Amino acid sequence: MKIAVAIASENALPSAFVVFRGIEESIKKAAELGYDGVELALLDKDQVDVNKIKELINKYNMEIPVISSGQVFAGSGLWFTSPDVEKRKRVIEVFKGLVDVAVVFGAMLNIGRVRGFIAEGETLEETEQRFAEVLEEVSDYANKKGVKLILEPVNRYEINFINNCDQGVDLINKLGISGLGLMPDVFHMNIEDASIEGNLKKYIDYIDYVHFADSNRLAPGWGHLDFESIVDALKEVNYDGWISVEILPEPNSDSAAEQAIKHLRTLIPKNKEKAYE
Ligand code: LER
Ligand code: MN
User: CA 81, CA 130: separation in Å to the nearest integer?
Assistant: First the structure.
């Protein structure tokens, strides 16, 4: 398993749940703290100079496993299930742009809150249908470029559609969209899933990436989740992917990022060959 930390550009909104802001400094800091990579939270493709970022991740021997899209939802007010057809067209365009960024880094692309809501007066079936139509167009494009899409269940206080891993897996099976994976976030699982460890093991064949934050969205070790038990569950089913730390920058970015990696390195040692000196 490898460990990443979520970062965003300098001007990212407070609603971006990232530890560091400012892409260049963040990559350097994450490398120095001993992370293996960074997850890039983007609003849209024009926010970043991919060549510059490529240079930096090579320099610091880092990887970008995932481009995350929460900002498209929180910052641009766009989501897949929007009743407004123009907004659906725009979200498809934005996602195609994010696929173009992801492909440069061999990264996956996440679908979190941006999947959208069950709108007032609409049924779950209507919402799923709209979600499926947008997803199909995005995934056709992503598949052609070799970029994997991953669906993240998010708790009921943030969204009212796909709140737990059971619902995520059911929908993945129902839609039959090729290459769509599951991306559990233990913060949301703690609120919505019957068992964090149980569902991580049960759905391991669907899982491509995992978000970590403690029960209060602080760094692991500063809330009441049992990360030893969670990591043991992932080890038991031979999970060999990424864990990404998506926590609040509290009490400040540096100490949150340091606490997270220190706590997790006691459970997931660093692969020495890859270490940045
Ligand atoms: C939001 O709570 C979250 O976990 C994000 O990763 C999804 O957009
Ligand atoms: Mn998350």
Answer: 5
